[in-house]
Design brief:
Length: about 130
Amino acid sequence: MPENDDRQILRSAPYFPVPDVAKSASHYERVFGFTPEYSAGSPPEFAMVSRDGFTIMLRLVPDAAAIVPNERQGGTWDVFFWARDVDSLHDELQSKGADVVYAPKQTEYGMKEFAVRDSDGYVLGFGEPVRPAA
């Protein structure tokens, strides 16, 4: 690769198929503190919501039964965010009615993390690096 290569990945966003884009976007705004970034269609067929510069894309799918979040496939999260002060973030989301999958806990791999489930079943993980327990 050339030394002066300017190629760079600038942004990424999870892409969640949902049965009702307006309802899902509203949930992200009301409960998770995201703000609307973009919406297309009336009623919306696609939307982007963001918080602290991180975006989630929501796309209308005609068959809700086709939506299979990672948790239902044996996974843990559909998206994971590294954050600061996960205890306060957890408290904020919980006070707004978030469906908490698990409260903040320290893991054996050096993270303090928690997870919430959105109205479509997607699980969002939030964590911060911590020193391992002695």
